Amino acid sequence: MSEAVLSQEEEKKLIVNAYRKLLKSIKSKMDDTDRNNIRMAYEIAVEAHSKQRRKSGEPYILHPIEVARICAEEIGLGPTAIVAALLHDVVEDTDVSLNQLKEKFGDRIARIVDGLTKLDGLYNVTSPQAENFKKVLKTLLEDVRVVLIKMADRLHNMRTLGSMPRHKQLKIAAETTFIYAPLAHRLGLYSFKTEFQDLAMKITEPEIYSEIARKLQETKLERSKYISEFLKPLNEALEEVGYPYRTTGRPKSIFSIANKIKTKDVPFEEIYDLFAVRIIVDVPLKKEKQICWQIYSIVTDVHTPIAERLKDWITTPKSNGYESLHTTVIGPEGRYVEVQIRSERMDDVAEKGFAAHWKYKGVNGSPDVFESWFDNVRDILENPDSDSVEFLNDFKTNLFQEEVYVYTPQGDLKILPKGATALDFAFSIHSNLGYQCSAIKVNKKLVPFGYKLQNGDQVSVTKSSTQKPNENWLKMVVTGKARSKIRSAMKEERRKAGDLGKESLQRKLKSMKADFDPNVDLLAKYFGFNSRPDLYFEIAVGRIALNELKTYFTVEGGKLIEIIEEIQPNTPVSDIEPAPKAKKNLIKPRLLINGESADKFEYSLSNCCNPVLGDDVFAFMAVNGGAKIHRTSCPNSTHLMANYGYRIMKAEWVSSGDRSFVVDLKITGIDKGPGVIERLTHSISTDLGLNIRSFFIEGKEGYFEGKISLLVLNKDQLNVAIKGLKNLDEVSTVVRVED
Ligand code: MN
User: Is 0.85 topped by the overall pTM?
Assistant: First the structure.
């Protein structure tokens, strides 16, 4: 945003223009009531937000107007949602009450705004994100529009995150990656998912993001030349099909490109599928399938297809509604090119997912794919025992997956996430069938419970009333439903065992003359458990020695008091070896946590991502008061930030201290005969002047792979080292390892 202060007149103009843009973007049919409602909502919102400004300094009202525009233009929602979007922040932030909205706009709109206000409310509280996610899902089941508007709200906030302080940006980015991107995927809003991931990456890994963005920009011209060369020999035949068509050749998202670079360990230049060619044909519903296959045959007549890369989501759509025909062919210069063939309707569904799906509901006679998913969500949510963090993890693994298609003995199609097992199948039919499952047959042959289902499998389950789930079963399922059902059955068992533990604790406390309440909670916390049943269980199985309780606690007036060892102040500092406590005070701060010297905290550098001086980092506060320093790009960071956002603190490097950091590098290269280790070691220690902590190398058939731990002073030195290693003749790749 510009720094210049706008006059009142100019601001008014800005607002009116934004509103006009919104009106122009509405594609759905409207009657006079709709038009009046939108106008009225706009006026109320302008008035209500008139004194507020966004962090960037611009008038607040521009935000709800833009959210409404995203709803209309990018999701294709109708007048009801547009009105609700305009009003989405008024109840929370201003004097307008829900009742006033109900009077003016009726029950339905008031309910949506209420849902949005509640979802917004969770943003500031310190409850774990898992709880928040649960609330989002509950709302989803009540009215999907609330969640769709919330997505538009989040998208606009992500697009304009620049003026927020860094640690808030990180938190919002993590929450987006954790909740909103998977949900957008599940609801089929692919363009939202992609943008969420890209915008989050721009914040967490700005360097990688901008490098890829730059390279995409630089190669744009070359790419479009290639695509038109690819399409040229097809155009004539496509014209002859007789339906209007259009083609696109958009590059894949920066996030997915970065992912490929990381997981496949190849440089940008060597990724062959940077883009996909899309052929979209405007054809009546009845002819969709036939024409898509006709186009497939035109494409594969000219460019040789790779047989195993054909994916037919036209015959069986994905469970998020996605329909398209994908194939990979060999294009000019021998490059692999993915081609996606679909109708305009399918494209609409692919881009806007659930929202578009609604519009076409029932038109092609296919079962409602979302209904069955919603049933599933309802099932998981209604399980009172499911712990929210477990719930979320289960749920998340089920969000992104592709699916596998199998059949019941009656020939009914069942869609399960890819990787699902025979036991998952049993639970998907009915939880009781799962609990009592005693044998499973696939294609008439007996299989282990953990058998991974294949497309087309016919599965039948035998049950026995004496069967009971056990701990091992958890290893044999992947679906959230099965996991949560097994866990709740296990918890029941645990609870029974725990009753015994509870009794012994009661006896012990009584003998110490201590009350049961609230000492039991104090003990649970002391041993690090979240709940009483966990404590009871550990006592029951003998992992907690109750007879030693007296060594650690005294009792005063029925209350347990922890015995804390006094640390002597002014312990004399020895000349040779300072005492640990004193030593810590002698080291200059090189890291600040929340602006204070990090040495005040019991902190350590996490060994999952080994941060070094200069890395972008954050602090994660442990329950016992210590702190772990992670890199913002650490694979664990998303999970930590999203689940325990309230334990994240800002951390920054301050001095150039002289302590070195350990980094792990993975090196691959060509093995040019014996002595490769010596030569590498020599270059590293002599030419680059670095200390090697450990070096592990393995060679196979003229190729070697090694892991090397180096000591470096800071990120700059690390980068020099990586560059230096890459320059060595025998080395082909060098990557910093995060495990
Ligand atoms: Mn908002």
Answer: no
